[in-house]
Amino acid sequence: MRAVEIRGLHYTYPDGTVALRGVNLEVEEGESVYLMGPNGSGKSTLLLHLNGLLLPQRGEVRVFGRDTREGVEEIRRRVGLVFQDPDDQLFMPTVFEDVAFGPLHLGLGEREVRRRVREALRAVGAEGLGRRSPHHLSYGEKKRVAIATILSMEPQLLVLDEPTLGLDPWARREFLSLLERLKRGRTLVMAGHDLELMELCDRALLLRRGRVEREVDPEAWGK
Amino acid sequence: MKHHFLDQYSDRRSPLHSLDPRVKILSLLSFVVAVVLTPLLPPHRLLFYTLLLLSLVLLSRVPPLFLLRRSAVVLPFVGLLAVGLPFLGGSGGSYNLGPLHVTRSALLIFLNVLWKAWLSVLAMGLLVSTTPFTRLLRGLQSLGLPHLFITLLSFMYRYLYLIVDEFERMGRAREARAWRMGGLERMRVVGNMVGSVFLRSYERGERIYQAMRARGFGGRIRVMRELRMEGTDLLFLSLFLPLLLLPVVI
Ligand SMILES: Nc1ncnc2c1ncn2[C@@H]1O[C@H](COP(=O)(O)OP(=O)(O)O)[C@@H](O)[C@H]1O
Ligand SMILES: [Mg+2]
Fold this sequence. Notes:
The structure holds 2 protein chains of 2 kinds.
Chain A: E1 2-12, E2 18-28, E3 32-36, H1 43-49, E4 58-63, E5 66-67, H2 73-78, E6 79-82, H3 86-89, H4 95-105, H5 110-123, H6 139-151, E7 157-161, H7 169-183, E8 187-192, H8 195-199, E9 203-208, E10 211-216
Parallel strand pairs in A: 3-8, 3-9, 6-7, 7-8
Antiparallel strand pairs in A: 1-2, 1-4, 4-5, 9-10
Helix pairs in contact in A: 4-5, 4-6, 5-6
Chain B: H1 21-37, H2 44-60, H3 64-71, H4 75-84, E1 94-97, E2 100-103, H5 104-130, H6 133-142, H7 147-177, H8 183-214, H9 231-249
Antiparallel strand pairs in B: 1-2
Helix pairs in contact in B: 1-5, 1-6, 1-9, 2-5, 3-5, 6-7, 7-8
The structure holds adenosine-5'-diphosphate and magnesium ion.
The site of magnesium ion has 4 residues of chain A, from helix 1.
């Protein structure tokens, strides 16, 4: 089964901004795909369609075979979306509560929630931050914890919007190796314009003005 | 940036810090009730409560000066009260303060309110400085405060700092470009800043709502019950509450 299947997707924001004009995209299970494109090309808008936060106005979006217009609950269980700005992603008063938010709302029991929080924090190297408040974290720590809040839901498809944007070179380096680890055994869709990050991925697509312009070779770009 | 408006020092370690928040909230409430119900005269009872509170302050390892300064928030209200004093009648002797006469009973009322208000505010400050805000909310919640109210407070706590940061950044940007601005001009600019911070907060609100829905939120926030009463909590309560009653019998 394909993880993602998008056909002829159009989306216009209420204020009249046309963000997507006929996107086609397929992602196989276990694959990592990088969406490359300048600011305003529609990357974030596209990602929001992957777990039904936005529904297609024209065309269709299928995730693990299901049309997002036919109910999003199951899809949100299986797709984890990490937003670009960690201050949007981290809305609970402590890191622990934030990482626990997803599992609790999946209806899991307390023991299981605790186990998942522990593992998610360990996976991103943020053990020991559990009791801190997000506003006392550095930007890089916030970004890592933001990923943990999604990992704790154990999604089958992991979607990351601009994961390395705004990080200093040192934090970015750590982040690249974190993402390389995360990609093993997972289906991964990322967006941004980080060439090194693109090289980690199996495939890369160039998005421009709301369309997939072409597929690019992640290894050969810029060489 | 790091701000601490609410719960500075709350992440230290002390016997008071490690108490269950519910125990502290209940102790605070009983303390305030006891203080308010105690007559001013003879003064040894209020003095007892004062010493009790001050010894808790020492126990908490929060700098006493910090707490005292913070408890000064009662002063404006006290000032307001003082303005009204000469107009209070009452019996007993009276004192001349310049052209004004203040009766003895009016002065006693003033002292009464001042002392009790100060004790209550100081006790509240002690609670807030020994309990991280999130634990305080947990405590309030498990003592039965409405869910919606708790949710509201926790979002406020999370985003207050962000809004303040945004405002400060804009303020600096303004100062960098226009440090010599007339009063009227400055007011206009501040007005714009408030508007734009509001707009940004509104947009952020929408993005946060999306982030919540993406993680399975459907209208009701679920949280874990993570408070556990321990032996020391019960011990504290069983010492503190009888102490509060002590002045009644002596
Ligand atoms: N909430 C919104 N309301 C109106 N227009 C928007 C909104 N979000 C994004 N846009 C517009 O949609 C287009 C695509 O934006 P976006 O998907 O954020 O692109 P990217 O993530 O590639 O930078 C841009 O022109 C942007 O200004
Ligand atoms: Mg974007």
